[in-house]
Each structure stands twice: as C-alpha cells, then as structure tokens.
Amino acid sequence: MIKLITIDVDGTLLTPLKRLTKSNIIAIEKAKKAGVHIALASGRPYSGMQPLVERLKLNQEGNFTVCQNGSYIFDNFTHKPLSGTFQNPIDLKIIDELLKNFDIQISAMDHESFYSRHVKPNIYTKIDAKISRLPLQVIQYDDFPENKTFGRILIMGRKSEMDRLYKNMPRELVENYYAVRTAPFLIEVMNKSTNKGYAISVMAKDLGVGQEEIMSIGNERNDIPMLEQAGFAVAMANAVPELKIHADFITKNNLQSGVAYAIERLLANNLEIYK
C-alpha cells in the first residue's frame, strides 16, 4: 500500500506555463484525506516552493519539502531546513576554472539568495532567480565568508553551448560532483552525495515509510534517483527518455494533469500499485 507520494514540480506538477491545475489540486487533497503523505521534490529553493505548499495545504505539521534537488529538506510547518548536503565557495572556483573554455555563466544559491560573480548576469540567470523567488546578488568569490554554503551551483548558457558542454563534461566535474542537466539552458551541480532519491529516503525513514510504500512522479533526469527510490515509479508522458526507462507506469503529460491521473488511478485501486 502506498503511504507516501513524492512529486516533482516543474514539468510534472505544473503546466508548461507554471500553473497548478484544479485536477492536480483535487487529486492531492483526496490522497491526503486517504492518509497518504505528500512531498514535493524540486530543484527550486524553499522560497520558490512555499506558494505551492500553501496552495496545496501541505503546511501542516509532519509534512516536508525536498528542495534544490535534495540539498535541503524543509519542514513545511516550521519553514526551517532539517538537513542538507552542501558546497562552498572553493567548489565555485574549481568549477569556474574547469569550464573557463565554455561560453557559460556559473552562479550558486542557498535558501536565502542567488549569487553570481558576473556584473552582467545572463538572461538565464535572471530568469532562474526570478522563478526561485530569490534576490540576485553580484558578489566575487573571495568576498564570501569562509563558512558560506550553497545547495546548488548552476551552469547556464545558450542551448547550443550547453549541448557542447554536456557532451564534453570535464572528468573532474563528473567524478567529484553530482551534475545533471535539468533544462536545455541549465546544468545543476550538487554535492556528490546529493540527489532527490537520497533526500526522499531520509524523509521516508523519518515518517516510518518503507521503499515499497513510496510512489514517485517525475519527468527529468534529476528525478531518476527519486524514481529509483520508489516502490512505484511514475513518469510523465512528457518525460525525457532517460527517465521513462525507470518507470513502472507512464501517466499523461503535465498539460493534461498527469499527476492527477496517476493519483486518481491509485485511489481507485485502494492505494495499491497498478499497471
């Protein structure tokens, strides 16, 4: 029996225009009333997740949100981070040096701000900061305090250049960090031990939920560890091919409220896994 449903946000829960459909809201509410825990898991920081947490009424005690691809686990009731795996300014310098021959920009974020060393941040950096609902701060690496930590380091640029980078990722970057492409213009870099799957396993343990009792829904490469952690893995119809091979079920796309379709099927089957 499924006791926990973990749901990715962009490309999964939300439509292409970043809207939350009525069908998804209703289905999630029904699942909650059936006693199922709901956890949102996203690359967004908590500031970018709070409106969804409030809208879906997930702000009660005992509910959590996985942010920045697993870098932070937030308590929705207290709005404070419970745990996290981080990076520091040295990592920013290392990655910047590794990618100096690519026409990209590197920035970083925690749950309070978005940081860039570029006096003129590119359009992708500006858009991501806006979506994340974080202030964009221009700062040089040596100006960070020694104890500064980040949840994510972000590599952003034109699709053509990101394609070139993705095909020629420096070995040191791949071996020492968890790097995943989550959009045509974006590669996210986290601590090597960080991913949504690890964060979900920590949260599930705290809730007393076994792996076989988890249903996870996603669409992108960074959702693969989350689906691997679930007893019932669901991919969106609009998911990338790399993720679909890990799925037990393919639901409708995010424009057709695929999350609601998958949850309604689960409820109709008395919270048991279906085909």
Automatic annotation (TrEMBL):
Q: Which residues form a coiled coil?
A: none
Q: Which segment of the chain is annotated as a signal peptide?
A: none
Gene3D superfamilies per UniProt: 3.30.1240.10, HAD superfamily/HAD-like
This protein's record includes keyword Hydrolase: yes
State its Enzyme Commission number(s): 3.1.3.-
- Record keywords, A-Z: Hydrolase
> Which CDD domains does the record match to this protein?
HAD_Pase (cd07516)
Q: Which SUPFAM superfamilies match?
A: HAD-like
The GO terms this record gives for MF are: hydrolase activity
Protein name per Swiss-Prot or TrEMBL: Cof-type HAD-IIB family hydrolase
Q: Give the species this sequence originates from.
A: Anaerococcus martiniensis
